[in-house]
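Hello again, I could really use a second opinion on something today. I've been puzzling over a protein and I'd love to understand its fold better. I'm sending you its amino acid sequence along with the backbone structure tokens. It would help a lot if you went through both lines with me. I've dropped the whole record in just underneath, so have a look.
***
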Amino acid sequence: MTTSRISIRHPWVRSGALLLVSLCAALAHAESPRVSWERIQGIDPNPAGGQNFADIAPVAFPWSVSSGRASVNTATGRLRFAVKGLSIGASPSPLARIGTTGIVAQVKGTLLCHLTGEYVDTDPADLSATGDAQFVGALPYVPACDAHDLVFLLRVAAVVPNAPPVTGLWLAHGAVRKLH
């Protein structure tokens, strides 16, 4: 009985194995249902002004964040975010004192498709006096979008009574996006 052996040194075998490994890695990456942002970063709209996303405008002055992160499971719509130390970085207004949350009482997370402008908001989350807020829950849907084009924004959901209407403006965004 004669047996033949194919050596891993054979160029066809090496090429095929490399192609198979690459294909498996690409498929696993393409089907990754979780997107996370390892940091939440405050907006700095100066000097050119912050970027509008779809019909979502930025606040007019800088905000800072001590720490924060967000993640979404695109298969289930489960989204979570936590932010600490969200505060005003600079402002000419007496209603917006530097180092405070100003008139902002609640924030909401927004998951947005950068290419199409389609977005969905979380329910509001209370913002503490020290700028801390968190949310865990399910979105009603996830925008139809490639995971590479998803953007996370933190927006004003509610202000204190008798304050100017700034609801809906974005204050911070997710940074350092990872696909899992």
Remarks:
- The CA atoms of residues 89 and 136 lie 27 Å apart.
- The mean pLDDT is 85.
